[in-house]
Amino acid sequence: MRRRCGFAFFALLLAAASTPAETLRMAADVWPPFTDASLPGNGLATELVSTALKRAGHRPEFVQVPWARALRGVQVGDYDLIVNAWYSDERAGYGQFSSPYLTNRILFLKRKGSDVLFQAPADLQNSSIAVVRGYSYLPSFDADAGLNKVPVKDFQMGARMLAAGRVQLTLEDELVARFYLSRELAGIRERLEFLARPLSENGLHILVRRSHPRHRQLVEEFDQAMQGMRKDGTYQAIFARHGLPAPERTCCASE
Q: Does 120 share its domain with 176?
C-alpha cells in the first residue's frame, strides 16, 4: 500500500511538471519608455514584468490598448493583469497589487541658469507651469487653483515652451522626460535641467484581476521573481538595455 501511494505521488509530481505554462494576457496603454509596442521588449516596464513572469513559469502575452480599456478589461476578465498601475483603493477592489517594481518620480524642469526653486508648494506661486491636460500629478497640486498652470497637449510641447521662455517650469515623470530628451527633444536638452525635489513619488505595480483563481499566488510569484532579478543583475541590465539608469530603491508599497 505504501509503495502504491509513493508511486501515485510520484506520478502526480510528473503530471504537475508537465503542465504547460499558463498564458497571462497583460494589458497596458502607450506610455514610453515604460509601455510601448514600438520599443524593444514592448517598453521598459513590459520587459521587466514579462521577464519576471517567465521566470515564475508563465507565458505572458502583451496587449496594447487605451488605458480605460485596460482597466475595464481587468475588471471583466478580458485581461489577466495590467502591467503598469499606480495604487488606488478603487483598483484594489477588483485587482491584487504586487509590490512596486519601480518608482515614478514626478520632477519639475526649468531652464538652465534660472533661479526658480522648489522646496515647498509656496515656491510655485510665482511661476508659470506647463501642465498636460488631464494628467494627474498630485491631488493637492491638481486642485490648487492659485497656481499659474498653462495647459498643453503633451510633455514635448511643455518642454519646448519652457526652452523658449514662454513658461518657467514644466513637470513629468523623470524617466519619461529623459526618454523624450534623448530623442525628439535632444535639440533642447542642454537648455533644460531637473529640479532635485520631486513633486510626488508613486510605486509602479502590476494589477492582477481578483477574479483570477490564483491572483494572490501570481502576485507572490511575481514579487519573488522580481526580487531575484534585482539580486542577479537582470533588473539593472534591462534598464541599461533601454538606456536608462536603474533606481537604487523602490518606494510606495501598497498591500
A: yes
Residue with C-alpha cell 509601455? 35
For residue 119, what are the domain limits?
105-201
Residue 179 lies in a domain: yes
In terms of Cβ atoms closer than 10 Å to its own Cβ (0-12, 13-18, 19+), residue 112 is exposed
CATH number at residue 32: 3.40.190.10
pTM for the complete prediction? 0.81
Could you tell me if 57 and 98 lie in one domain?
A: yes
| Amino acid type, 229 | M
Is 241 in contact with 40 (CB distance < 8 Å)? yes
* Digitized pLDDT (tens) for each residue of the chain, 255 residues in all: 334 444 554 544 454 444 567 899 999 999 999 999 999 999 999 999 999 999 999 999 999 999 999 999 999 999 999 999 999 999 999 999 999 999 999 999 999 999 999 999 999 999 999 999 888 899 899 999 999 999 999 999 999 999 999 999 999 999 999 999 999 999 999 999 999 999 999 999 999 999 999 999 999 999 999 999 999 999 999 999 999 888 776 665 444
